[in-house]
Amino acid sequence: MKHLRIATLLGREASGEQVTVKGWVRTKRGNKNVAFIALNDGSCVSNIQIVVDLSVIAEEQLKTVTTGACIRVDGRLVASPGSGQGVEVQAESIEVYGTADPESYPLQKKGHSLEFLRDIAYLRPRTNTFGAVLRIRHAMAYAIHKYFNEHGFYYLHTPLITASDCEGAGAMFNVSTLDMNNPPRTEDGKVDYSQDFFGKPCSLTVSGQLEGELGALALGQIYTFGPTFRAENSNTPRHLAEFWMIEPEMAFYELDDNMDLAEDFLKYLIRYALDNCREDLEFMNKMWDKSLLERLQFVLDNDFVRLDYTEGIRILEESGRKFEFPCHWGCDLQSEHERYLVEEHFKRPVILINYPKEIKAFYMKQNADGKTVRAMDVLFPQIGEIIGGSEREADFGKLYARVEELGMNERELWWYLDTRRWGSAPHSGFGLGFERLLLFVTGMSNIRDVIPFPRTPKNAEF
Ligand code: 4AD
Ligand code: MG
């Protein structure tokens, strides 16, 4: 008989029907007449209670049914008098698929610390918390594709291996098949990349944007959604070396249109989570962050503030607040500054625009003042920057001059510059950090806890 998922069974009537359920044992308790097994199969945070009458199933057979073991239960779906749920399964037979020796299985007691669970990241999906986080992660990925599909965007698959540095920050991982201990050398002693796999130095991409722009200038509206890589040595609760990014890019969008899209998109995703992940969100609210549901609803109910960088700096300077990093016009905002604006001053999400060109990437549209660019960062409570984007420089001359000015490798960017030579158009886009979104939606406070296998400096286990 085909088994049913526990989420489905828990929604059924207590019909007495014959059912099969398969899952992992969370706990077993009882006495010499009856045993109660809490079984979970990952389909929802709730367990289903399996009631074992020890006159039907021998106690001997239950010995290997311990926490962590995987079992199949055949029985009847009956009303549950005391488990807090409508139904439970009255077991008629149990098959043990895989035992879990209580001496060695690490997930015995409840309430392990998140730090401990990071060390056993390969097992943590079996906990309630990570089950909930991973289901929410799935739902958000699905909602992202759904949103763009409903709004006429095409999913463009941009490459992960690249020869260009989109953000110009130089924090890239090299991709090479050369023997690192004995690389071929040119006559002047440099590594001879012409003999490397791609015939030139290559890296893992920090962003799919540059290729995304090519897509937008042909298909009108595209998005990428894939892994991106940054070799910056930032050991913070908000940075990963490998993270997923969603990057829409739109022809004929100016900065205001870009902001409208970012706000609508974020609200859609949050609403989707509230509508579709209710049980998991309630669990996260109860366990980790008592104001989570309230904060999600708050973001839905309020317009985002739109503010010039210059004005933001003025507010920070006049705040009288002692920041760890003092700030002034021209400085890159730290998360303490972003959070001050969002959490204390405006008490709602803020979109900061028109940043100094020195602290932003080469491709952003230059403003007439000669000092600022049409950048936008969306700043969120608890998170700081959740989105970074801009209107793009569409003018060949201005873009070329900026590339020159920054001493960038125009030979690697020739194809990008060419888009401004033929059929250039105003266009805009942004990047949403998927894990930053998940921090906000799940209420978790460390980015390592919203991705199944975090990659951070000195850590690539599993
Ligand atoms: O602001 P960033 O660097 O912007 C870009 O990469 C642009 N090319 C995006 C675009 O316009 N298409 O990164 C975008 C977002 C950030 O706002 C943040 O949410 C996330 O990506 N992010 C990170 N998330 C986790 N770990 C890191 N190390 C991150 N760096 C950026
Ligand atoms: Mg940024």
In words, what does this structure look like?
The protein has 462 residues and is α+β, with helices and mostly antiparallel strands. Helix content is 30%, strand content 24%. The chain has 13 helices and 16 strands. An eight-stranded mixed sheet has the order 6-10-11-16-15-14-13-12, with helices on both faces. The chain has a five-stranded mixed barrel with strand order 1-2-3-5-4. Helix 4 packs across helix 6, helix 4 crosses helix 7 and helix 4 crosses helix 13. The longest helix is centred in the N-terminal third of the chain and has 23 residues. The chain is elongated. The mean pLDDT is 96. The structure holds 4-amino-1,4-dioxobutan-2-aminium adenosine-5'-monophosphate (4AD) and magnesium ion.
Features:
462 residues, alpha+beta, 8-stranded mixed sheet, 13 helices, 24% strand
Structure in a nutshell:
By secondary structure, the protein is an alpha+beta fold. It has 13 helices and 16 strands.
Largest sheet: 8 strands, mixed
C-alpha end-to-end distance: 35 Å
Oligomer: single chain
Q: List segments where confidence is low: pLDDT < 50 over at least 5 consecutive residues.
A: none
Supply the helix-strand structural class: alpha+beta
Percent helix: 25-40%
Mean of the pLDDT scores? 96
Tell me the number of helical segments per DSSP (H or I, 4 or more residues long): 13
Inertia-based shape: elongated
Q: How are strands sequenced across the largest beta sheet?
A: 6-10-11-16-15-14-13-12
Q: Report the order of strands and helices.
A: HEEEHEEHHEEEEHEEHHHEHHEEEHHEH
